Amino acid sequence: MSEVVLFGHPVSHSLSPAMHNAAFKALGLPHRYVARDVDETRFVDEVARLRSDDVLGANVTIPHKEAALRLVDELSAETRAIGALNTIVRRGSVLFGANTDEYGFITALGEAAPVEATVLVLGAGGAARACVHALLERRNDVLVANRSAERLDALLRSIEVEGRRPRSAPWPQAGERIAAGAVVNTTPLGMRGEDPLDGVGLPPLVVDIVPTAEPTALVKRAQATENVAVVDGLSMLLHQAARSFELWTGAPAPLAAMRAALPRPA
After folding, report:
1. Would you name the residues annotated as active-site residues?
2. 90-128 burial string, b = 16+ CB within 10 Å, else e?
3. Does pLDDT of 126 surpass 80?
C-alpha cells in the first residue's frame, strides 16, 4: 500500500481524504490518502521524506503552495509560470511539482465568466496565482485585491501571459458595489462562517473557491441575490483532485465516485 499525503496548516477540515479514498476504492487500488497538519517549521523535512517513504506523492495546500516550489526537483512549465504548486508526484527519488488548481478552476468556471470580462480576484496566495494565470489565459482583464501589499506586489510582478498582467485594486468596502463582471474569492475567509464581502454589492458572477461542507456565507448570499450566478468551491476541489489523481496513478479518475464522496453536489 502506498500513501498520498496532504500537507497544510490547518487540514482537519479537508474534504480531500474522503474523496481520494473513495477514488482508490472505486478502482480497487491499494492506496490511501491521509491529511497531515504541518506548519512552516516542519514542512521542509516532511517533503524530504517523500523521497524515501512508500508514497505516490502529495497535495499541498495553505500555507505551503509557494514554498513547495523550492523543494521539488522538476516543475511543469505551467507550474513555474503560476509560481505555486498543489501537487507533488514521486518518480523514484525525484519529486515532480504540478499545479492542478488552474485546471480545476477553469473546469469549474466553464462558460460562467465571459472571456475578456473584468474579474476581481480576492487574495494573493497560491490559489490566487493559479486563478489569475488562468483568467489571463482566457484574456480576461484581471484585478487583484489583497490585505498584504507585499504579497500582492509579488504576484503582480511575477505573473504575465502574452504581455498581459494583472492590476492591483483596493479591497471592496461595505456600501460599495463591485464594478467588475465577476469576483473570485481565493482567500480562506469563509471557512469559519465569515463573508469576505460583507455589505458589498455583488457583481453578476460570484466564485468562491473555499471548499466547505456547507455553503459559505458568500455563496449563500450570492444564491439569494437576484441576477447573480454562483460557482461554489466544491466544483474546483473536485476537478483539481481528479487531475492530481491521474498524475499519481496514471489512471483516469473515477469522477462519479469522487463526487459522491463530497458532502453536497459539486
Report:
1. 65
2. beeeebbbbbbbbbbbbbbbeeebeeebbbbbbbbbbbb
3. yes
